[in-house]
């Protein structure tokens, strides 16, 4: 069939050329329109369900919100696992789906089940779905700066929330703007308990009165004089004075009692769960641009910058946008470097082709297959919805050398036929020679290219993060090779006929070929005469290669240098806001002092986004590095990180380093921010905490441990108010009555919201700070009884300082705790092997508890398990293809046996360069094996031709001729090809 396709293409060459032109134009269009990013989106298909339950402790959030939601979400079809996190006042449930599930289908299913359980959640719990964004959606950070010095952080935050955020959220491709830093304005009513007692007004009545006095109503319509008037009643608070005038009752003599009479009304900050800093010099107000799923990050960033330029005119004088983190620089640099390498590779291939053919028109035939094949691959990428990144373009780079092989062999074969035809007096026509020469080698070349394509089946079999990382490379490599295979039997014969019409020099006249043949001649003679010793030596080298192979370390992936370093230490839980801010600024200032650091964008705690659940004990500062040409001599990325590690080393703080994109992917995929993490599963938080501490004590003894940090499952501090039911009953009160009074006085009770144009601010009622800042003051809090009397809270409840969970994590509704392990100067595979062995010997787990190793190690193990199954199957398929081509088990086995020998050099080179085995290097070896198989197929093709030709003309009479005569089949089939 392939021979018929070649013949059809030559006879319909105009149609072939027009089709090629159309494909080339389509490829050029795809090159311009294809979305561009630095790396593939490695995020799982996931939906985040976030619940706000203000003021509630993590245990309460876990029991009444996170656990019920996690159980319900496990029922959603296609779910892989469900991870839950409970923090102070907030719950996050991340539903992770199988890879083939559509994101928007997943969101609709989650919403369906969420509606079903909404009624079972406690009153006041506000549930919402996170944005339709992925782990790599945080593409840009900006800073809202005041150069005039007239605005405070609260005013800047208001501008951020009510002017900037709505405008940027409306930009096409933006899922949300995650605000961070500054102070959110709040109207606060600090009531005086002595005055409440004097007026005999309970605090709950203050809350109710404020709520009832802050609303607008509609009175439908009124018609007067033939005109319709809409009736509306305006009652919203407009300023502090409106709140002070809210009536609470009437004193003797008809004197009204107002909120202003019983307390102080003022503006204050909302409780903060996140702080932002710049270079350790002070707090800032900032925002993160979170990109919508499937968008082009470069275009989104450019659109956001355009909108910022428009907005600057609407900002107060002196307020401007300052660049923070911008991924577009990394994207452009990565793609530019790769495109440059692609161009350089194409030039080298073109020069080598011309050097060996020494015929410009012949070289042109081979060279033209490159842009056409690449254009076809880009067009297919566009239709498949793939973006251009270092992996997808890397697949094209890998394929370039093999793409041109078929064209070169076919051109060279035409040269031979033309030489022979000239010697015989030109009995055959030009196009007849083209068809004959192409049909002679075309099917075998097509098979060899198909083998290279099929060699990447194991890559397509990868799943989860490693699959999403390498499948773009496999797709583009496959598409490029498929394009080359199609061109080899359609366009290449046509171009050979059009361009190669004469002036072809015999191979013997090429000085390069003559030199190589002269060098190769003694080698092939020696090999053929001493074939068994040579085979024995090759087998010995292969056997010895097992030694360096076993000494190679293992890791998931070599790290990609993103041009930024993320400082991610974990502090002890329960750290206060002031102390957290101080630690953040000290670390940022130390990092910013390194000459190679351009700026440090500090962050502790969480931003206002469902995609960020960082506690106040987690720092995530980004150090943006200067261009490498501005670095000190001899400084490397690793040495900068080591210098940072030394500068910020602090007792009690475990240093951990990552990079922005990598960090978000790791945290959302596994919940682990370090290369290695240990998840401890079990039913009791205290036991989980104890096991974590034991692991934290043991692992530093393992070589390669940079830092170990076990999350403190019980490290939080609580003021525990335990209601005495008997005492409450004596006053005619229920537990709920006492707790509501405690919430209102100590934590504060929301009493509505002000509406100031487009701005919205909360109203809070509570006691003054000095009356609630210690257990004794809380015990003195007055609680109103049904009889009208007011008693102290200490008479109704026991107040103690206890330890509890700062946050609670779960997976598939099972409680877990995590130990973070940062590994340095050692490969992940051998480290985990030693760590497992040590923990098995030293750690005794109680019944019902188990360990699960996670992080990069989890992905590495999953990829290795898959490759062990798929690679043998792929080899079997390739063997069948070889058998169909040659019709001989011996020749097929000969090609297959060459594969391990082709990998020997790669193993030794990795050992000498101290590289680790990873999924990336495994794919490199797979690609190498495919090329080795292609070389074997071509060599066997010419060996068979030379063998049969000499048998027919009688120059090959027996086995001895193979070893004694260099001019016979092996010489002609190997050296001259």
Question: Could you characterize the architecture of this molecule?
Answer:
The protein has 977 residues and is an alpha+beta fold. The chain is built from 35 helices and 30 strands. The strands form eight sheets. Strands 1, 2, 3, 4, 20, 21, 28, 29 and 30 form a nine-stranded antiparallel beta sheet that branches. A five-stranded antiparallel beta sheet has the order 13-17-18-16-19. The protein has a four-stranded antiparallel beta sheet with strand order 6-14-5-15. The protein is elongated. The model has no long low-confidence stretch (mean pLDDT 79).
* Mean pLDDT value: 79
First and last CA, distance: 26 Å
Biggest sheet layout: 9 strands, antiparallel
- Report the helical percentage: 40-55%
| Strand segment tally | 30
